[in-house]
Structure formats: C-alpha cells, structure tokens
Amino acid sequence: MPMGCVLLGVCVGLVMLMSSGVSSSKFDELFEPGWAMDHFVYEGETLKMKLDNFSGAGFSSKNKYMFGKVTVDIKLVEGDSAGTVTAFYMSSDGPKHHEFDFEFLGNTSGEPYLVQTNVYVNGVGNREQRLNLWFDPTSDFHSYSILWNQRQVVFLVDNTPIRVHSNLEHKGVPYPKDQAMGVYSSIWNADDWATQGGRVKTDWSHAPFIASYKNFNIDGCECETTVNAANMLQQCSSSAEKKFWWDEPRLAELSLHQSHQLLWVRAKHMIYDYCSDAARFPVTPLECQHHHHQH
C-alpha cells in the first residue's frame, strides 16, 4: 500500500450532538441495501425487510467505524417466525475479522424469541450466549445497541446491558481494537439450526416474514478503510488535542447500576453461556474467568 494512502486516511471523531446530523434516524444517510433490493419496503421513517422462499435481505453501513455506539430500533417478525434469523451486527473484513453479533432466533407462535450474541476476535468466535427477552420483541420496537471502546464491548437492549466483553489483553486475551467495522443487518432462512436446533422448520405458508427498523443511529469514529491499524487507533483515541466521548473514564466499565442490571439479566434471562459449557470447553476460556468479579 503506498504511503500516501496511509497518510491521507482519516478517522473523523463525530461529536455527540444530535444536531450534527450524524445521528440521523434516516436509513439512507447511514446505510444502503446490501442485497435483494426488491425485498425492502420503505414506510415513512420505517424500513421493512422481508424474507420469503425466494430470498432474504440485508443492509450495510456506508462507512466503517472504530469505537463508538451503534443503535437501531427493531420490531421482529410477528407470529410464526420459526426457522428465521434476523441479525444486527458489526464486522470488519477478511479472514481474521472482528465481529459483534445480535442474532434473533425465530420461533413458533407463542414461544419466546431467543437472542444469541457472539463476539469474534481475529476470525475466532465460539463465544455464544443466549437469552430470553423480558418483553415480546415482535409487538413493538425496542432499541438494540453495541457500545465499543478500548476497554469493553457492551451489548445493550433498551439501554440495559445484556453482555460485556472486557479488554483482558493483560491476561493474554486478544481484544478487538485494530480493525474498523461496518454495521450490518440481515434476515434469512436458517431452519437447519435456528429453532430448537433445527427440529422446527420454516413454514413458508406464513411468508413473507418481516423485520421492521427505525431510528438508525451511529455515533462513532468514521474511518477510511485505507488507513493502517496503528494510525486508525491513534486517530480514534483521545489525546491532549482531542477528546472523544467513548474514551471517558466512566465508559471504561459498567456503572454500579448497569452491573446490577447485567446481574439481573444473567440470573433471570440467560439460558446458555459458552463460559459454563464444560462439554465444549473443558478448560474455561480465559476471558470467562473474569467477568464474575466486576466491582
């Protein structure tokens, strides 16, 4: 890569002011359809993506980001959604990619939707957690967010933390802070595994399956993808000259209130945690030996 590209590459720290226009609730200012354009329906500020037996659909952010907070309001597929998966995630490119996932696993009518989260670092995932939500995600819009800085990745539902992936580099655990990530969402048929381990298949007589979105919000450090990792990290980190909100000390870990919320979620709503799956991981993964001791 010619040096010129590296030096020209910039990450723009976006201010938190809503008036900046960056935190636009309009889909087309931040995102674009990624595939199956004919499976998108625009109704005012609401975007609907549909899955039928021809195709699913997906969208992606126009830019890539390093640190910040991404939020979207989603209303999941109503009625029988068995076999379907709706995903909202951040990901970098390439085989050694980083990725933060929300995957909403559909279910037969009356059964709760399951939310699966996962974190990939350097192309390696296998960090699944699953939980039931404390509301019906198909009856109304709820906000789903990913907060990401040099200290932690936090998954939030209606601003309640449901998962934290902390920076434990001091323990030799790699942490995702060297690759800019795009923001994506998609809906597709995954009836080989999505519902009850693949036992319940998609009932196409109930198609189309529709996921609805609104209030798109990205407040982060926007990056040119030509920049090398060290430059990107530097440009998106606070220094004497510039202060970025995601580097504020209070965002280095959960607040006491948030810690209590997370404990409640884990106690009342978590149904699977890779950290306690001794069959898969006879030796507890390093990052798991930490998170029960916060505060």
Description of the structure:
The protein has 295 residues and is mainly beta. It has one domain (31-283): Jelly Rolls, CATH 2.60.120. It has 4 helices and 16 strands. The strands form 2 sheets. Strands 1, 3, 4, 6, 11, 12, 13 and 15 form an 8-stranded antiparallel sheet that branches. An 8-stranded antiparallel sheet has the order 2-5-14-7-8-9-10-16. Strand 12 and strand 13 (160-166) form a beta hairpin. The protein is globular, with a radius of gyration of 19 Å. It starts with a helix and ends in a 22-residue tail after the last strand.
Number of helices: 4
Question: What class do helices, strands and sheet pairing give?
Answer: mainly beta
Question: Cα-atom Rg, whole angstroms?
Answer: 19 Å
Total domains: 1
CATH architecture verdict:
Sandwich
State the share of residues found in helices, binned by percent: 10-25%
User: Do you know the CATH topology?
Assistant: Jelly Rolls
Topology pattern, helix = H, strand = E: HEHEEEEEEEEEEEEEEHHE
Instruction: Tell me the β content.
Output: 35-45%
Question: How many E-type strands?
Answer: 16
Largest sheet, strands/sense/barrel: 8 strands, antiparallel
CATH class label: Mainly Beta
Shape: globular
For the terminal residues, how far apart are their CA atoms?
A: 45 Å
User: Which spans of ≥5 residues are poorly predicted at pLDDT below 50?
Assistant: 1-10, 13-22
Task: Round the mean pLDDT to the nearest integer and report it.
Answer: 88
